[in-house]
Amino acid sequence: MRLKSHVVALCLLVCVGVARAQVKASGTIKCSKPDAEYKVDVGPNHALVLDQAKCSAGTDKPFEISGVKSGSGVSSNFSDVRGNKSKFHGYYVDTMENGDTGEYSFQGTATMKDGAIQTTEDSWTLLRGTGKLKGAKGKGTCKGTGATDGSLTWECAGEYTLASK
Questions:
Q1: Residue 151 is part of a domain; what is its CATH number?
Q2: For the chain, what is the mean pLDDT?
């Protein structure tokens, strides 16, 4: 009898684990040229930059979590620029199409030419969210490409574990 109760308990734990399984998500995000940008020169070929840009979901492949598509977002970023290389960290607040929000932290590197970003990559972590993202955990990576107008297009992928209800 004791063995049967252990088997039942193990089955329940496995079912709970499957219910809280990781959800994969991927898609594109496009960020405009920063609306606000503050630069402080440190020395020759070295500057600190604080900027903020508006972003939107990619039209061909929007980022989607549990059936809800990303709508718009704001990226706030701090960069340490040395020559044609940059290290950065910041926060991204994403507002999904249904009004749910997610707040992410990110950090990464960029390669630049004549002060414009050419390629960039980062890793991100979901810090907190509302609605379907409340209590969720998530992490992933993004790779970005700069455009001549100062915008960036990001290809992002990651995994989420949604909170149990």
A1: 2.40.350.10
A2: 86
